[in-house]
Amino acid sequence: MSDLLTPTKVEPLEAGQAAALDRDGYLLLRGAVPEAWRDALRTAFDAGVGAPDQWAAPRGAGWRHALVDLDPTVQRTCRLPPLLAAAGRILGGPFFLCQVEGREPLPDDGRQPLHRDGAGQDAAVALVFLDPYGPDNGATRVVPRPRDAKEPGGEPDEAASMVLAGEAGDILVFDADLLHGATRNRSGARRRSLLLSFKLERDRAGEDACRAIRNVRMDTRETFVP
Residue 45: pLDDT above 80? Predict the structure, then answer.
């Protein structure tokens, strides 16, 4: 465990939320971001959008990407107690904030196939929604663990996925091994979000070694202990 900063204690999830997260592999925290913070987060997102060459590694086509990890309101959002509690439930041991960046599907684009961000890895992922989201503007779809099955050809079963919908300020937290993907932004309405990842303290050295290629500029020394 890092000894650079005093570890931060994370409170446990409420029992019902913990059971839902254990069962489904994801948890949607409705209205978790204080309303007073949301305009500042949207402003930080828009200010962080730049030319493709601001990224050390190419980002996916069909998306708007934003550098946001030095913004103080973004950092406060990454430390909201319910978010940390959910990440701690997934990871089960000391962990740290590995990365945060902004992403938004472009009009008539952004669809992703069902995939796993970290098959077999110990990682927690979160999406902080900065605008209302639903099936018309590129919302995320997930496959709850009880539905996770493959079609006869070996591909993930699209029929098992659920498209999420909600409002600005919601946070989706999920195990990196959960099948998920984005839908196409058919309406062209804005669907900004912050994409966060948390990893176990034991993986810190490997993540630190590739900070530059991931455009991580923030201080990541803080350790969170469930």
Answer: yes
Cα torsion angle, 127, 129, 132, 138, sign: negative
Q: Tokens for 170, please give them.
A: 């919601």
Distance (Å, whole) CA 74 – CA 84: 14
Amino acid in the structure at residue 5: L
Kindly state the percentage of the chain with pLDDT values over 90: 85
- Beta-bridged to residue 183, according to DSSP, are none
How far is CA 93 from its chain centroid?
Answer: 19
Q: pTM value?
A: 0.94
Q: What does the DSSP assignment read for 131-153?
A: S-B-TTTT-EEE--GGG--B-TT
**Token pair of 215 as six digits:** 């455009």
Q: Identify the structural domains of the chain with CATH numbers, from first to last.
A: 8-52+63-148+156-225 (2.60.120.620)
pLDDT value, residue 52: 83
Q: In b/e form, how buried is each residue of 174-199, taking b as 16+ CB within 10 angstroms? A: bbbbbbbbbbbbbeeebbbbbbbbbb
Evaluate whether 24 touches 146 at the Cβ level (below 8 Å): yes
Beta partners for residue 35, in sequence order: none
